[in-house]
Amino acid sequence: MTLDPESLYLQLGQLAETMPDLSRAGDWSTPDGQRWLGRLGALVESRGSINDTATVSASTQFLGGSTHDFNAQTIKAILFRLLAIAELAAPAAVRGRFITAGDALGALGAVSKVFGTAKQDLLLIDAYADHVLITDFVISAPERVQIRILGANKESRKAALKPAVDRWAQQFGTTRPLSVRVAPAAALHDRLILIDGVDVWSIGQSFNGVAKSSHTSLMKADPDLAEQKIIAYGLIWDNATPLA
Questions:
Q1: Domain boundaries of the chain, sorted by first residue
Q2: Is 241 helix (H, G, I), strand (E, B) or coil?
Q3: Dmax over Cα atoms in the chain, in whole Å?
Q4: In which element (H, E) is residue 217 found?
Q5: 98-242 fold
Q6: pTM score > 0.70 for this model?
Q7: Which residues fall within 8 angstroms of residue 141, CB to CB, at 6 or more apart?
Q8: CB 148 within 8 A of CB 122
């Protein structure tokens, strides 16, 4: 089955994000690791490249042997080459949704594109929300958009947020309205970006650690799931405590 460019890009990005440790003593040999290798092989095969398919198959077969390191590197190289090719072919609206480890600028760019679609309201859900979310990411939200942050009701998190919130209010006033509430950490199961009560994006890592040590991605929820998340987190926001 041939995948459309968008689906191929997103699926390859997800594989890169969830790649197991391919070192000799890594978790590539676990059931989850073997499933990952199987998914990679199937996606490579779906592109119709006989050479890449054969190379991935052979490299997978000889993991754990005397040429393990070479084979592991070959698998990674093919995955990231195909991801780069798929991104070029994908629609402009979804490009850049996969964020490689260490690419802080790419992370900011990807998040900024999503924030930029907001017209009225931007609700950010992150149990680990701290000053980084405000200083590094929220600054890219459009003016006049109501920005809301829902974080965890933990003293260390609140202490990290409060000075940044105060400085934000002093600098921007009503031109960039910002409000922060906290809820029990156990209630915040997701890291989400909710746009205008309609669209929902999930991000694979908390904002304060995005792309620092591992790959991640931004994924847009389908309409049914988005509606569920908007209702659920709307209720949590209504019952949350304003940051004091």
A1: 5-89, 98-242
A2: strand
A3: 64
A4: strand 216-220
A5: Endonuclease; Chain A (3.30.870)
A6: no
A7: 115, 116, 118, 122, 147, 176
A8: yes
